[in-house]
Design goal:
CATH superfamily of the largest domain: PAS domain
Structural class: alpha+beta
Strand content: 15-25%
Number of helices: 8
Strand order of the largest sheet: 2-1-5-4-3
Number of strands: 10
Shape: elongated
């Protein structure tokens, strides 16, 4: 009898232990809001804390799992080391273990280099274009039309790893606003009003004069403005550069991470328009520091195009200047 009682007690303890472990697992799985930048930051920082708690090997295994505690549908954590090697990604297992330090988005932005520099300097927000998942699959080889603006957050996880995650701009919400952040929506409206409406309805000289007018309808109260180029990369008009650079061919202008900025903007406009994320100095009031800018361009006709942009700090509300070596 005593033997059977002992066996019963052992079995009961095992059942309680398993049940308790299951409850703990559910409690440890935090639920994050995939439409909140604050949750994005917390999400990645929590994952970095998890690395410190369980160790890199166990954490990477968890990050690689599609059913892991940090994988919540389209929200997931990826991990890199500082050599540019992808160490974890639940939806890109074939790429884990490979060098990705030179990976660029569809427009040529050096996303991994920028994210790594950001993480190495304490962490922060980034922006880039990335394909939207289709049926749970992310296809980086798909065409540019599948790539959407995304805000990311990169953060260090010890001396050897950094982590990242992101949320599509279209999934971001703010109290009292629609899906897109207000500054982003205003910028799109400015381009579409200037391109689809005014520039097409007026003579070229009239349209360019209005775009270049600092007091005109295409410079809004938040400092957003339009600029115009021809497809050879010649700057036609800019409300703040005036005669300083107008007429210059800037096709070969490169960003600090090697991106051909004007060439990429021109080619995007020639293909029908769309978004381009690039690095550009924030104006003198912000120290002219290099910062990611989300641009939007549209063709006017077969001779010229126009565009505008919004700095990342306008979306995040925090200093988003890049650390450029």
């Amino acid at each position: 009898m005593q033997k059977w009682i002992s066996v019963f007690v052992v079995c009961l303890c095992v059942i309680l232990a398993v049940t308790s472990a299951g409850c703990t697992s559910q409690q440890e799985r935090n639920v994050y809001n995939p439409s909140s930048m604050a949750d994005l930051e917390m999400y990645v920082q929590d994952a970095a804390g998890y690395v410190q708690t369980v160790g890199a090997a166990a954490a990477l295994k968890e990050f690689n799992a599609k059913d892991g505690r940090f994988t919540q549908g389209d929200w997931y954590v990826y991990a890199y080391d500082y050599e540019g090697i992808l160490r974890a990604h639940p939806y890109a297992q074939d790429a884990v273990g490979t060098y990705r330090g030179n990976w660029t988005d569809v427009r040529g932005l050096s996303v991994i280099r920028i994210a790594q520099e950001t993480a190495a300097n304490g962490g922060g927000y980034i922006a880039y274009l990335y394909p939207a998942p289709a049926a749970g699959v992310i296809n980086e080889s798909a065409g540019g039309e599948t790539y959407e603006p995304k805000i990311g957050y990169a953060y260090p996880a010890g001396d050897d790893l950094w982590l990242g995650s992101g949320v599509y701009f279209g999934d971001l919400t703010a109290e009292g606003e629609g899906a897109y952040p207000a500054a982003f929506t205003d910028m799109i409206s400015l381009v579409e009003a200037g391109g689809a409406a005014y520039a097409e309805a007026n003579a070229t000289d009239t349209a360019l004069a209005e775009i270049g007018n600092r007091s005109g309808q295409f410079v809004d109260e938040n400092g957003h403005y339009l600029y115009a180029y021809d497809y050879n990369g010649t700057l036609l008009v800019h409300p703040y550069l005036g005669g300083e650079r107008v007429g210059d061919n800037l096709m070969d202008k490169k960003g600090p991470f090697g991106m051909d900025i004007i060439r990429t903007l021109s080619e995007t406009a020639a293909d029908g328009g769309g978004f381009v994320v690039f690095v550009w100095p924030n104006p003198p009031d912000n120290g002219n520091r290099e910062e990611l800018k989300i641009g939007y361009v549209l063709p006017v006709n077969d001779e010229w195009w126009l565009g505008s942009g919004v700095y990342l700090s306008e979306i995040t509300g925090v200093d988003s200047a890049l650390f450029v070596r």
